[in-house]
Structure formats: C-alpha cells, structure tokens
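In response to the reviewer comment on reproducibility (Comment 2.3), we provide here a single inverse folding case reported in full, input and output, so that an independent group could reproduce the run without further information from us. The structure tokens appear first.
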C-alpha cells in the first residue's frame, strides 16, 4: 500500500489544511476539536495568511477524512494541502 496519498497521513509526518475558520475564537475551536484526536501530536495554526491554515503533526497513521469531519462538525471546512517530512 502506498501511504503518501491525499487521504492518509503517515506516522511522523505533517499535513497542512486550509480552513474558512477566520477569527481567533474560531481557530481556537478548531484547535481544541483536533486535540481530541489521539493520533494528532501537535497543531500549528497560521493566522497571518488567507485563507487561514493549520498544520497537524501525527504520532500514528491518520485518515484525512477524520480531520475534515471534526472541522465540519464545528461548521467550518478543512481542505488538505501538501505533505512535509519532519
């Protein structure tokens, strides 16, 4: 199985997402929701660019859809960007 695709985040990688959450409060809600996913080790929010973005670092393999669904439950969207090796 080829792990580097747009739907799976392999262990010890990071993946960036764009989001339509805009304010500091909205981005804090996104961060708190993502911290409930056990596979996520760290979240970095970039609130200086538009659209806003966040990067997740994983400790184990994680399906991108799980992140997207967490953000959708808040009423926002998350669109996956590119991989970067840590």
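Designed residues, in position order:
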């Amino acid at each position: 199985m080829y792990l580097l695709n747009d739907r799976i985040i392999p262990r010890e990688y990071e993946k960036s997402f764009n989001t339509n959450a805009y304010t500091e409060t909205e981005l804090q809600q996104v961060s708190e929701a993502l911290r409930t996913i056990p596979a996520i080790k760290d979240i970095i929010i970039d609130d200086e660019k538009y659209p806003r973005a966040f990067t997740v670092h994983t400790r184990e393999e994680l399906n991108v859809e799980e992140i997207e669904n967490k953000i959708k439950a808040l009423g926002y969207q998350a669109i996956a960007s590119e991989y970067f090796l840590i």
